[in-house]
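Running this now, will post back.
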Amino acid sequence: MTGNDAAHDIRRLIPRFDHLKWKMAAAGIVIGLVSGLLVVVYRLGIEYGTDASRWIYARIRETPWLIAPWAVAAVAAALAIAWMVGKEPMAGGSGIPQTNGVVICGLKMRWQTILPVRFVGGLLGALFGLSLGREGPSIQIGASGAQCVSPRLRGRRPEG
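Update: finished.
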């Protein structure tokens, strides 16, 4: 291969590289927007749930007999959360180790089940006044959103 051939090959690859660079940037923006939107909705839901739990606990303080139906509802919510996490174990815990396992170790994460379990579990937990970590679940929700969108941007069907 002569110097001219190499230069010609490089000149031919530069437009492809520029196209790929812009395509990847656009995909990154779309994935960032989808993931960010999911996390914002999740965090707003948790804030509303926390506000609702404060209001409900204030009503229970004023009307103590409300503690019985609230306790039944809390047990039902706990059982529902336990059932959901039993169906999707990757949605339990922080979310950061699970996401690291996907990125670093190649574990599989089923975004179709993780998103609803994280959303519903987090909202139920906040509604009953549980202390929830926000960063870990937010990271896993964002990663699940990215896992949903990225195959579509490449013209493939999402796994699952």
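The helical segments are 3-62, 67-87, 96-105, 111-127, 135-153. More later if anyone needs it.
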